[in-house]
Design goal:
alpha+beta; Peroxisomal Thiolase, Chain A, domain 1; 7 helices; 4 strands; 17% strand; globular
């Protein structure tokens, strides 16, 4: 793997085929509706979509940091903290991208100088992070990754007995999103 050539900034780049999510074929569909409608139609919901947030930042030097920016905003909007989250599902575009998000989320300096926050976001506990695999191991089916992330969070909450899941991803051009899903009572 060390002999692979960089995909972008040659010859000094660090992103290679070995540490990037691979594009895969995929399709997805989700049925999203009010609980009352779902029950009236005989469906059993898996989870509630509690809150969501879209963000945008400067693509020049913050291109793939959407999860860092969106996570505290969606938590605040939902009245939750990182400690309330039982399952984290983040899109991993590249291993360096997820590591950059972790570094930014764990930095008071970054929070103050780039995000206008007084304190850092904090790291998601690794024992709750992408436990069933992420985009680096499962692949990145364009157009289906978001559904994969949400369903992984919902299914983990059901199987592991958790209440809240946080889904986050970066997107093209310096965008990002995060959402809170809550387990549907059994």
């Amino acid at each position: 793997m060390a002999k692979l050539k960089p995909a972008f900034i040659k010859p000094y780049g660090t992103v290679t085929a070995a540490n990037s999510s691979f594009l895969t074929d995929g399709a997805s569909a989700m049925l999203i509706m009010a609980e009352e409608k779902a029950l009236a139609m005989g469906y059993k919901p898996k989870a509630y979509l509690r809150d969501f947030m879209y963000v945008s930042q400067d693509p020049k030097d913050q291109l793939l940091l959407g999860p860092t920016y969106a996570t505290p905003k969606v938590l605040e909007k939902a009245g939750l903290t990182m400690n309330d989250i039982d399952a984290f599902e983040f899109h991993e575009a590249f291993s360096g991208q997820i590591l950059a998000n972790f570094k930014a989320m764990d930095s008071d300096w970054f929070a103050e100088n780039y995000m206008g926050r007084k304190t850092k976001v904090g790291l998601p506990p690794l024992e709750k992070f992408n436990n069933w695999g992420g985009s680096l191991s499962l692949g990145h089916p364009f157009g289906a990754t978001g559904c994969r992330l949400v369903m992984a969070a919902a299914n983990r909450l059901r199987k592991e007995g958790g209440q809240y899941g946080l889904v986050a991803a970066c997107a093209a051009g310096g965008q990002g999103h995060a959402m809170i899903v809550e387990a549907y009572p059994k």
